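Hi there,

I know you've been waiting on this one. I reran it after we fixed the sequence typo, so this is the corrected version. Both the input and the resulting structure follow.
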Amino acid sequence: MRFQPFSANGLRTFALTTLAFTAGVGCRQTAPPAVDPGMSACIPGDTLALAAADLDQLRASPFLSGEGSAARGLVEQYGSASTLMVAWNGSDVLIVLRGLFKTPPAGGSMIAPGLAAAGSQKSISAAMAQYRTGQTGAAGLMDYGSGFGGRSAVWMAVRGGKPLPLSGNLANLNRLLADADYAGAALALGQTATLRLGARGRSADSAERVEEHLRGFLSLAGEAEIHRPELAGLLGNARIERSGREVTAELSAPVDTVARLLAQFVAQPAR
């Protein structure tokens, strides 16, 4: 397959369609649930992809100081929120927000005290209806994503089995998704930044193919960045493991380095 560099549109799509380590930003005496139960209860059953961000962690980390950080705009847009979830069903995007607000952020509707939803009227209505059931409508997706990276600053999870509208080199990930029940990513921010990618194969044989696709994706990504040794080295040193049906890849670097590298990815147009 021909490898294409990351694009801004590709990263934004990936953030909406694809979001386990404790981030280590700040100290908490009692660990909170990996996923806010109220926010989880807003996610409808037709969700294909889910992303979550701990906005307070992002604000407390030097990650946002990276020039051109794509996360900065998200944090600034929802300044009154502490956590955020994004659900995508193939056509509509639903944003669920938790924060100390008495009125919803612009364009949103209140679901419960401190809990709001934004998006199309259809998606907001679906979130309200799901919330009344008291439980999430996307249990498998939520379990995979929260288990993979629920206490990370950002995590993503997506159902496998069908291609996603990814652009640039991220479109190559559809090869991986074809053999996966679920796939995900998580970004943990502490003394270093740790990025994890993972997938659950449909079978042991599928997991082996997923591992091959993931190794190929990271190898080609490193080759495409040969003129930026720092980024090429980071991708080349990713640790890839397979255990049963589970496949993971992990890479770590100083927080400011990862922020700078992600900014460089966003700045490159697709070819």
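Quick highlight: The chain has ten helices and ten strands.

Best,
R. S.
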